[in-house]
Design a protein that fits this description.
289 residues, 3 domains, mechanosensitive monoatomic ion channel activity, MscS_beta-dom_sf, Alpha-Beta Plaits, SH3 type barrels, 8 strands, transmembrane, 3-stranded antiparallel beta sheet, Small-conductance mechanosensitive channel, 5-stranded antiparallel beta sheet
């Protein structure tokens, strides 16, 4: 006779899930939902500049990632401790193999502890100049500037955080709005530059004069913020020569960053016209008795 199927002893094919695994999945889900809510609330702040919004979003992501890692370590601590004790040699090999990753994590910790920069700051590190658009535990993304200017090239560079231990970090945020801008005008050595200094100063003053008061206020703000005395916001004209014996005029201005190249172009054009006129008059002067 066939026995009653209800009395058959059938072993369970599926085991009970591990409490640690359930806790890990629950932690991941809670943090993911919380981050989505926080990011949505940040994006609703239309009164904030874009670089501030990017900074807050990047910071929130890194905070939630740190909480996830911390939670997983606490949940799996007993298993990790047993694994580490049983595989000490393997752990040493892993450390050696992941040295660069450890350096990147340490560089991220150093950046956070020293507050060297944040998302939206202008920095220069390891020959790369630009605006920080994102940073993670392993790398920092920089929107590059063109050489000798503050115009974006459209390229982005990801710098590993390990670079922060070997290269100095220059924070250029203080010159986001105003900067000390210098440019040189080179001409032939047969022009008497000192005799033309009043005319050059007049050209510089005509273009820089309307910005002087605003530059003085910005200069005072920077001094209060940094706590050090910087150069006065006065235009400066210096004469020198090049290695090839050419005459050179160097003009230095403390001006709005957005207008630096415009001022340079306008002043340089008029000074070059002045030098061209002076060179045309020079032969006539030499021929006179």
């Amino acid at each position: 006779m066939i026995s009653d199927p209800r009395t058959w002893d059938i072993p369970l094919a599926l085991g009970t899930p591990s409490p640690d695994l359930v806790a890990s999945i629950l932690l991941l889900f809670v943090l993911w939902v919380a981050r989505m809510i926080v990011v949505k609330l940040i994006r609703l702040r239309s009164d904030l500049p874009p670089h501030v919004l990017r900074r807050w979003i990047a910071t929130s992501r890194n905070v939630f990632l740190f909480l996830l890692l911390l939670g997983l370590v606490l949940i799996w601590a007993p298993q990790l401790r047993t694994f580490a004790l049983s595989l000490a040699a393997v752990a040493v090999a892993i450390v050696v193999a992941t040295k660069e990753m450890i350096l990147c994590l340490s560089g991220s910790l150093m950046r956070a502890s020293t507050r060297a920069f944040a998302v939206g700051d202008w920095i220069e590190v390891s020959g790369v100049r630009g605006e920080v658009v994102d940073h993670t535990l392993l790398g920092t993304t920089i929107q590059e500037f063109q050489p000798n200017s503050f115009h974006y090239t459209g390229r982005t560079t990801v710098v590993p955080n390990s670079v922060f231990f070997t290269a100095p970090i220059r924070n250029l945020t203080v010159v986001r709005d105003y900067t000390f801008h210098s440019f040189a005008i080179t001409t032939e050595a047969d022009i008497d530059l000192p005799s033309h200094e009043p005319q050059i100063a007049s050209i510089v003053e005509r273009h820089y004069g309307p910005l002087r008061e605003e530059a003085e206020r910005a200069n005072a703000r920077i001094e209060r913020r940094s706590g050090v005395d910087i150069l006065d916001p006065e235009s400066r004209i210096r004469f020198s020569t090049t290695d090839l014996g050419k005459a050179r005029v160097t003009v230095s201005l403390f001006c709005p960053t957005r207008l630096a190249e415009t001022l340079e172009d306008a002043i340089m054009r008029e000074v070059m016209v002045l030098f061209h006129a002076a060179r045309k008059q020079e032969p006539a002067g030499d021929a006179s008795p």
